[in-house]
Amino acid sequence: MNRFVAKSIVIGVISFWMIVSASASYAEDTVVFENAEFNHQCFKCHGQKTYHYFNEASGKVVKDRMNPYFVMDSIAFYQSNHKSFMCTDCHSSDYENFPHNGELRMEQKFNCMDCHGGDDTYAQYQFERIEEEFQASVHSTKHSDEFTCWMCHNPHSYKINARNNDNINNVIVYDNNICLSCHANLDKYQLISDLTNPNVLITHEWLPNQALHFSKVRCIECHTEIDKEMLIAHKVQVKEKAVRRCVECHSQNSLLMATLYKFETAEKRNKLGFFNATILSDHYIIGANRNYYLNIASLIIFGFVLLGITIHAIIRIMTK
Amino acid sequence: MEQKLYLYPVWLRIWHWANAVLFLLLLFTGLSLQYSSVEFSFIDFDLAVTMHNVSGIVITIAYFMFLFGNRFSSNGRFYKAKRKGYILDLMVQIKYYIYGIFVHQKTPFPVTENRKFNPLQKLSYVASMYFLLPILILSGFALIFPEMIIKNVFGVSGIHITGLVHITTGFALSVFLFIHVYFCTIGKTPLSNFKSMINGWH
């Protein structure tokens, strides 16, 4: 076989492999949303910072700015839990007409429980218990009815996170950003409160290694009442009841195993003898990640040292 | 009467006792952190963290004082080992500790003006002061400033590896501490070596 033929075969095989891989990944990645075409009528304007409309009075096409609070991120929407929805599943079908009727702004918004409550399809998510916990939480008891699920869970972008995410760091960032969307954003915070927005950096000044704690655990780990039956605790407590004792996490029975790490598989636990081993791939918590075998080995070594010293001392005394 | 030797200058004694107290503090607070529990804690976790960090910083300063003293005084020469015949000397010393001492043999390497340590002491002191303690200090500072640590090493958290190195080295040095204290009772009287480290005279 001459060199040209050999080269051609190699290049041919590589090209074939690349084409097959590319088409396979295209097939896997491409998801068609059945309502995308319909929703595009809305995203045409509400997915952009500017929109066009025909002004009958002037007889001209006008380009105008979209109210930034009404701009929706279509990519985030099609990655969210509600990605298969039509916009008019939740909003009035009268929005199909433009200009929109001004009175439509007064439409009653759905709450989570309007769709998810009392439905066996969603029983595993325990929406009724979540509702109970939320009603007992400081978010509900200290604020008006304006504080709804939507304050934290944006219906246009919220997606189930902790259960589906392999990277615990991404889970922490996503969940903490939900809290910070109010607690680090005065505009949104004052929608429901006249209080001055507390600065979380100052209120947590007592916390050692603050930056590390903020990036490695979620706010809800310390600020909610843990219920082992719940997937995600929703009973946010008054600040006086927040976890402040280091040993609640920094111990063998770390509460983090009932919260942040509860979705990790049980098989991962005690890997190589480490207590709470599931934490170890990304993190290390003093007091929570002791190693059973190292504990035993250190006790044996220490025992032998003390025994050796004792025997040596006894023989010294006896042969004095 | 045997002539007394002035082997422990003031700076060395101050460093030694400061190092001893700080090491014990680090040992107790370190154990308290490692075995912290909701039901019982030896020292409150946050207090133990502060005490451990402060003691760690002070023991580092003391360690630099030790290095400086050894570099610019004659004390440093006691830590230099001769290469030729060292293993043989070491074996002789070990044999003395496991047999000769019980049959009242004379110590094979008696303390002189130019030989403060026997071969086994020299090995353990060099290993502790120039190998284990620097590792303990470096890993300790890395844990005080964890943002400096490499995040992930072959799928394992860098902080976890650093923590393991710190704890294992600390354990090795605490074992050394017990052996060191026991061997200090092997003197003219059980307390004579301790007195030497107080008044400077051997």
Structure description:
The complex is a heterodimer of chains A (320) and B (202). Chain A is mainly alpha-helical and 320 residues long. Chain A has a domain at 114-244. In chain A, 40% of the residues lie in helices and 4% in strands. Chain A contains 13 helices and two strands; from the N terminus they run ααββααααααααααα. Chain A has a two-stranded antiparallel ribbon. The N and C termini of chain A lie far apart (91 Å). Mean pLDDT of chain A is 83; it is low at 265-269. By secondary structure, chain B is mainly α. Helices cover 62% and strands 2% of the residues of chain B. Chain B is built from six helices and two strands. Chain B has helices spanning 10-34, 45-72, 86-98, 119-144, 158-183, 192-199; strands spanning 152-153, 156-157. Chain B has a two-stranded antiparallel ribbon. In chain B, strand 1 (152-153) and strand 2 form a beta hairpin. Chain B starts with 9 loop residues before the first helix and ends with a helix. Chain A binds chain B through residues 208-209, 211-212, 245-248, 250-253, 280-284, 286-287, 289-291, 294, 298, 301-302, 305-306, 309, 312-313, 315-316, 319, and chain B through 33-38, 41, 45-46, 49, 97, 101-104, 146-147, 152, 155-157, 159-160, 162-164, 167-168, 171, 175, 178-179, 182, 185-186.
> Into which percentage range does the β-strand content of chain A fall?
under 5%
Number of domains of chain B: 1
Give the full name of the CATH homologous superfamily of chain B.
Answer: Transmembrane di-heme cytochromes, Chain C
Shape-level CATH architecture of chain B? Up-down Bundle
- The count of helical stretches of chain A stands at 13
Q: Walk across the major sheet of chain B and give the strand order.
A: 1-2
Strand order of the largest sheet of chain A: 1-2
Spatial shape of chain B: elongated
What is the highest CATH level, the class of chain B?
Answer: Mainly Alpha
Distance between the amino and carboxyl termini of chain B: 13 Å
State Rg of chain B.
19 Å
The rounded distance between the terminal residues' Cα atoms of chain A is: 91 Å
CATH topology of chain B: Fumarate Reductase Cytochrome B subunit
**Tally of helical runs of chain B:** 6
Strand tally of chain B, please? 2
On the 0 to 100 scale, the average pLDDT of chain B is 89
Q: What is the succession of H and E elements of chain A?
A: HHEEHHHHHHHHHHH
How much of the sequence of chain B is in beta strands? under 5%
Shape of chain A: extended
**Rg of chain A:** 29 Å
Query: Main β-sheet of chain A, in a few words?
Result: 2 strands, antiparallel
